[in-house]
Structure formats: structure tokens, C-alpha cells
From TrEMBL:
UniProt KW Calcium keyword: no
One Pfam short name: Acyl-CoA_dh_1
Residue ranges constituting the Acyl-CoA dehydrogenase/oxidase C-terminal domain according to the UniProt record: 2-74
GO molecular function: acyl-CoA dehydrogenase activity
Protein name (database record): Acyl-CoA dehydrogenase
The organism of origin for this protein: Candidatus Abyssobacteria bacterium SURF_17
Length: 76
């Protein structure tokens, strides 16, 4: 809605990026815990999901940078 009105969405987009990437990382980590070493075998679905989840944490700015953006915007 904000974007449609031409407003900036820097805070919201940073929050979404951190939430989504960290959630994907936690899910991938739990999947590997369940599947054990076989979850990391080349070609296993969990292996690919694990790699993709890791990439999500660094692709659009690391989670740490996103958190800095959020903090700066909230603290002014």
C-alpha cells in the first residue's frame, strides 16, 4: 500500500528480508537435524534447500546490514 502511494518502504522491506531469510535458515537447519548426514548428500533436496537458505542471508544485503538499516530508521 505504501509503495502504491509512492512512499518509501525501506524499513518494511528490510524487516521482510531479515524475517524471510532467517526463517528459511532455521527451517533448513531443522531439516538437516532431522535427516542427519544424508541431508547433506549431493543431490538431496535438503542439501539444496540448505544452500539456497544460506544464499538468502547474503544475497540482498546480509542480515546484519539489514538489521543496521532497521535500527537506523527506528532510532532516527
Amino acid at each position: 500500500r505504501k509503495l502504491d502511494r509512492g512512499e518509501r518502504i525501506t524499513l518494511e522491506s528490510s524487516m521482510v528480508k531479515v524475517f524471510a531469510s532467517e526463517t528459511a535458515w532455521r527451517v533448513a537447519d531443522r531439516a538437516l537435524q532431522i535427516h542427519g548426514a544424508t541431508g547433506l548428500l549431493k543431490g538431496a533436496p535438503t542439501e539444496r534447500f540448505y544452500r539456497d537458505a544460506r544464499l538468502g542471508r547474503i544475497w540482498d544485503g546480509t542480515s546484519e546490514i539489514q538489521r543496521l538499516i532497521i535500527a537506523r530508521m527506528l532510532l532516527g
